[in-house]
Design a protein that fits this description.
Elements (H helix, E strand, L loop, with lengths): L24 H26 L5 H13 L8 H30 L5 E4 L7 E5 L3 H14 L2 E4 L10 H4 L4 E4 L7 H7 L3 E4 L9 H4 L2 E4 L8 E3 L5 H9 L10 E4 L3 H6 L1 H9 L5 E7 L8 H9 L4 E5 L14 E2 L2 E2 L1 E3 L6 H14 L9 E6 L3 H12 L6 E3 L8 H11 L2 E2 L3 H8 L2
Helix pairs in contact: 1-2, 1-3, 1-13, 2-3, 3-13
Length: 427
C-alpha cells in the first residue's frame, strides 16, 4: 500500500505496510479502486451534462464514495467491496445517460465506412472523445472551407447522422493515443485535442496544436467557449493537404442497429453458422504484449463474430474479417462508453435464448489502461458477468487479497496466450 493523505503518515513520507490510522493494505486498495473508478464515471457524466443530461443519483454517489475514502471514515472491508460494485451500477447509469444524450443530439449511429486517406484542402485533425466539440468544429470549419479528420476515439463520430451529414468530415487519420507524437508530427494540418488521451506535444507540431474543454497542454493554445477560429485560421495558413489514397474502416454498430438485425443473428446462431461471439476491446497501450489482441482476433475461427469498442480496436480493425450471411464478423460499437451498447446486446440475446448472460456463447477479453476501463470492469462485475479475461497485466492498485476475492466470485482471469485462451473459451 501507499498512503500519505494525513499529517501522521509514517516518516512524513507515506504508509507502506499499514496505516498509522490502522487502515490495512486491502482497505487502501479498495479506496484506490473507488477513486479510480469514479474518474471514469466523472468522464461520462461530464459529457452527458454538456449535452443537457444529469442524474442526481450519479452525483450523490460520487459525493458519498469520495467521502468514504477520507481518513478515518470507513474501515469495513465488506462495505468497501459493496461500494465498488455499486460504482459499477452507477457507471452503467452514467454510460446510459451519455448514450441517450449523444443519440438525442446527433442521432442513432449506423454502420459507416470511413476513408483513411487525404483529400485536397486545408484540414484540422480532431482527437479525444467530445462529440459536441466535433460538431461545433464541423460547423465553423464548413463555413471556412476547411476539412476535418478524426483521430483515435473520434472515429465513431462518423456514424452519427447529425455529424456524418457534414461534407467537410472527410476521413480518419491515425490510430490510438500512444502513437500520436509520430502521427501528429506527420499530419500536415492543425490539430485539436478535446479530452483525455493527449500527450505532451513535440516541438515540431506544438505551434499547430490546440486544446479545448478539460484538455490543456503547456505551451499549446487553449480554445475557450468552442470558438475554433484560431484552429481554422492555422489550418488555412498551413495550406492544402496533398491528395493521398487510403482504405476504409467501418464503425457505427450501435446497439440500436444490432438489435434491429437481431433476428438474423439469432437465426445464424440457431443454424450453427455463428458458433461464438467474442467481445475484444478496451484501451490501447504501448506494451509489446498487447500484440496478444491482434493475434487473438486473427486466430478466432471463421464461424465466430467479434464485437469491439474503445481504442483497443486499432490493434485489429484494419483486418478484413469478412461476414457470416451478411453479418460483418467485426462489429465496432464505438467509444469506450459504448460498452453500454455491448451490454444491451448481450442482455437482449440472453432474453431471446431464455438464459443468463453467463450462459451465452459469449466471451469477454478486455484490454485496460486507465480509469474508464476500470469503471467498465466494475460495471460488468456489478451485472454478475463471469469469466472475463483482462490484460495485458493486472491492475497494480488491487492487492493480492482483493484480486483473489474478485477471482473467487467472478472467475476474473488474466490473459495468457491466444492459443490457450481460445481453446478454453471455445471448449
Amino acid at each position: 500500500m501507499f498512503c500519505y493523505q494525513c499529517e501522521q503518515t509514517a516518516g512524513g513520507t507515506g504508509c507502506t505496510k499499514v496505516g498509522v490510522c490502522g487502515k490495512n493494505e486491502d482497505i487502501a486498495s479498495l479506496q484506490d479502486a473507488l477513486i479510480i473508478g469514479l474518474k471514469g464515471v466523472a468522464a461520462y457524466a461530464y459529457h452527458a451534462r454538456e449535452l443537457g443530461l444529469r442524474d442526481e443519483k450519479v452525483d450523490a454517489f460520487m459525493h458519498k464514495a469520495l467521502f468514504t475514502t477520507l481518513t478515518n471514515v470507513n474501515f469495513d472491508l465488506d462495505d468497501h467491496v459493496a461500494k465498488v460494485l455499486e460504482l459499477g451500477e452507477i457507471n452503467l447509469m452514467a454510460m446510459e445517460m451519455l448514450d441517450k444524450a449523444n443519440v438525442g443530439r446527433f442521432g442513432s449511429p449506423e454502420p459507416t465506412q470511413v476513408f483513411t486517406g487525404f483529400k485536397p484542402g486545408p484540414a484540422v485533425l480532431i482527437t479525444g472523445h467530445d462529440l459536441l466539440d466535433m460538431y461545433e468544429l464541423l460547423v465553423q470549419a464548413e463555413a471556412a472551407g476547411v476539412n476535418v479528420y478524426t483521430h483515435g476515439e473520434m472515429l465513431p463520430g462518423h456514424a452519427y447522422p447529425e455529424l456524418k451529414k457534414f461534407k467537410n468530415l472527410v476521413g480518419h487519420y491515425g490510430t490510438a493515443w500512444q502513437n500520436q507524437k509520430k502521427e501528429f508530427e506527420e499530419f500536415p494540418g492543425a490539430i485539436l485535442g478535446t479530452t483525455n488521451c493527449v500527450l505532451l506535444p513535440k516541438e515540431s507540431y506544438k505551434d499547430r496544436m490546440f486544446t479545448c474543454g478539460v484538455a490543456k497542454l503547456p505551451g499549446v493554445t487553449h480554445i475557450e467557449n468552442r470558438d475554433f477560429t484560431a484552429v481554422i485560421e492555422k489550418a488555412k495558413s498551413l495550406g492544402a493537404l496533398p491528395e493521398k489514397e487510403g482504405g476504409t474502416l467501418t464503425t457505427g454498430f450501435h446497439h440500436n442497429f444490432v438489435l434491429s438485425i437481431a433476428d438474423k443473428v439469432v437465426e445464424a446462431v440457431k443454424a450453427g453458422k455463428i458458433r461464438h461471439v467474442f467481445l475484444v476491446g478496451g484501451c490501447e497501450g504501448a506494451k509489446a504484449s498487447r500484440s496478444y489482441y491482434t493475434e487473438l482476433v486473427k486466430q478466432i475461427p471463421q464461424d465466430c463474430i467479434i464485437i469491439t469498442l474503445g481504442c483497443g480496436k486499432y490493434r485489429f480493425n484494419y483486418l478484413d474479417l469478412g461476414d457470416i450471411d451478411g453479418i460483418p464478423r467485426l462489429l465496432d460499437m464505438g467509444q469506450c462508453n459504448n460498452a453500454y451498447s455491448a451490454i444491451q446486446v448481450a442482455v437482449a440475446l440472453a432474453k431471446v435464448f431464455n438464459c443468463g448472460v453467463n450462459d451465452l456463447p459469449l466471451s469477454l477479453v478486455l484490454s485496460w489502461f486507465e480509469q474508464k476501463a476500470v469503471s467498465i470492469l466494475f460495471t460488468l462485475l456489478h451485472l454478475g458477468i463471469k469469466n472475463i479475461r483482462i490484460g495485458p497485466s493486472a491492475p497494480a492498485f488491487l492487492t493480492p487479497n482483493v484480486l483473489a476475492v474478485i477471482q473467487e466470485n467472478y472467475n476474473l482471469q488474466l490473459i495468457t496466450t491466444p492459443e490457450n485462451d481460445l481453446e478454453k473459451m471455445l471448449a
